[in-house]
Structure formats: C-alpha cells, structure tokens
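Example record

Each entry pairs one chain with its bound ligand, glycine.
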Amino acid sequence: MRILVVGGGGREHALVWKIGQSPKVEKIYCAPGNAGIGQIAECIDISAEDINGLLDFALQNNIDLTVVGPEVPLTLGIVDIFREKGLKVFGPTQKAAEIEGSKAFSKGLMSKYNIPTARYGVFADYKEAQGFIREIGVPCVVKADGLAAGKGVLICLTKEEAEAALEDILVGNKFGAAGRKVIIEEYLTGQEVSMLAFTDGKCVRPMVSAQDHKRIYDNDQGPNTGGMGAYSPAPVYTPEIHEIVLKDVLEATVQAMAQEGRPFQGVLYAGLMLTEKGPKVLEFNARFGDPETQVVLPRLKTDLVEIMEAVIAGNLDNINIEWLPEAALCVVMAAGGYPEKYEKGKVIKGLDEVPEGILVFHAGTKSANGSIVTNGGRVLGITALGKDITEAIEKAYQGIKHIQFEGAHYRRDIGAKALS
Ligand code: AMP
Ligand code: GLY
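Structure tokens for the complex follow.
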C-alpha cells in the first residue's frame, strides 16, 4: 500500500514509524513531515492545511490510504473531500470533527446525552457571560468556542481575571472567529488522563491510558504548552474508572454522534479529569493526541494499518487489538523561549549517539546544509519503553543527555506523578 500521512509533528513521526512496521506498506509519504520523518518516509512540501494540494497529490500518486494527524484539516473537511473522490482516508468527517472544532457543540452533546462533564454556559454576549460567572463563582474556566491551537482555555482564579478573559475574547477578538462564543465552566480538580479510542462509528476499541504534561515547568508550573511529555499507562486510571469511561464516555459519545447523524470514525480522544465525583470530560479531540501518540503507539502490538482499514470498512469489531505490558515515557525537548517567542535554525547535535532502543521522535526539525536544525517550539520527543515507569524514566533521560542544541530545555519531572 501507498500511504500519505498529513502533518509534521512528533505525533506524525510516531504514526509514520508505526505504519512503516506494517507488512502491507510499500511506500509512505508525509506532508509536510520533518527531518526525522524524512529518514523513514518521503516528505512532500505541502502544508497540512492545503486540502486541494493534498488531494491532487493523493490522486496523482495513487495513494491507497491517507492518515490525517492534526485537527485543522479535519475541521476543514479533508475526509469528506477525499471520500468524494473515492480516496480512502482515516479520520472523522467535518460534521463529526466538530466535536473538537466547537466546544459549544461538544458540551451541548454531552449535556443532551448525559455524558459526565463540568457544568457550563455558552455566551456570545459579555453581560450575560458576566452574570453567569457571578452565579457559578470562581475559580472558573473560560474557553473560546473554536480551535485556538491549545491556547483558548483560561483558568480564572478571580472574578477580575474571568472578566478580563471575557473582554479579551468577546470584545477584543483575541481568538478571532474561534472566540465569537465563549464557554464558561465550573472549575474541576483531580488528575488528568487522556483516553484515546479507535472507532468505526459503532464499535469502540480503547487504546491504553496516557497522561500529558501541559505546563512548561516542573511541578506543573508556568504557562500551558502543546505538551512537554507524556507517559502510559496512567496508574491513577484504574480498571474501575476504565469501565465507567468506556461505557459512559467513549461508547456513549460514539452512539450519541451516530444518533445525531454525525457518525464518528477515526480516533476519539477524551481528555478527562478524574474528580472525586468520578471521571468528567474536559474536552474531546477528533484525532490522535500529541505527545500521547508518542507513548501509546510504541505499546501497540497490532498492525496499525490493519486497524485503520477496519475503522474505514466499519468492521473494527473483527479486530483484536493487543498492547505491550511495558510502560512508555516521552520527554519533549523544546526551543529556548518556548512557549513564548523562540528562535529556529539551531543545529541539533548528538542524535546519532542516542543508545539503541530509545526512540527520538522529531517535531520541529528540518534538514539544512547536511545538519538537522530546530524548526519549531517543540523540537524532539525522546521516548523509551521500560518494564515500569521508573525504568522508562531512567532510559528516556539517559537518551536526552546525548542531545544538545542552543537554548534546549525540557522538564525533569516527566512521569514523577505516576510514582507518587
Ligand atoms: P481543554 O483544551 O478544554 O482540554 O483545556 C486545556 C486544559 O485546561 C486542560 O487540560 C485542563 O488542564 C484545563 N481545564 C479545562 N477545563 C477545565 C475545567 N473545567 N476545570 C479545570 N481545568 C480545566
Ligand atoms: N496532548 C493534547 C492534545 O493533543 O491536544
């Protein structure tokens, strides 16, 4: 098979790496890819958001299966457009991807189908939003309705902060059209877990649990990022909690989407808060997580292409998905200054010295003049498997010691929460 993977981050490197292990695969292209992906696939200089460019490429190059990594092409309708031309594509349709693309839609769905989530209101009007904040009190959470590259969620500890957030989004148009409406939510506390599942629109096959580390600094300090590391499994996610999440969240949501005439095919990602009152959904994503994918796929034993084909064919119930018992851990190395302003083009040294068995997934990298240089905020994800989290931590941090680039920084406590 000839495969096209859309995207160019650490998630896509992990996808290309895993897809490449399938005996069914003869050639992999990745658009736009990165330097690491370029070592195992052919990178094509087409943006992940250039749907027509991707379509032309897929048609001209007889692509048998397209796998979409990021949310933006999904919400732009890449799956609908490819399908219309008879192309096989892994991911949800535009109407199904709205579960990530509009928080007002996903909250409405959860409320209609009793899927556990934080109490909320949706507002386009500043005064009404302000009134709701007075009613629910602080801390509260203010979210832009649409996609905001992970920056659209503001945790507000005081009424003043919440009003400033409303002002920024509704009046100042900080997130443009994505912020025409805001969602105001009750503030939840607990540990966060990401549960991803494959689904063909009827059958749900959960992956293994993972925990992301969103804050930039150790001990979850500082601003949110795209994710500074992850591990799998998350020990707080017990089999009892899993039963609830599988039934009341993942299966309930897939059924709800079908009932709404928006059957969901692909990967459904539930971001969960494990509260004292049980697991509650913080958000849904319509795709693989980044960096969760970098710890989940190394644990997958089953052929990923076979799973994806079954999802598309609607016979996922025929597939038995197997996972390695080992733990996996990924530490992200970021550019100096990230998540604020950072420079690109720093030469990355030591990639060849990383011991065998440690996976280096590239995110923001590119090849230039015979070297590999930084080309984004999150640069690399160093991933290791171990018999348990302790061993995975040891190995990943051993691996990272070999790599240097100017300004490089990373968290030293990835996985620490799993041990406490
Ligand atoms: P989201 O993009 O909706 O997952 O939000 C990003 C992050 O904001 C989450 O991973 C949580 O850390 C935090 N968050 C979102 N909603 C809430 C909530 N209702 N209560 C507490 N924290 C939240
Ligand atoms: N790790 C968070 C996300 O993929 O959205």
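The longest helix spans residues 239-259.
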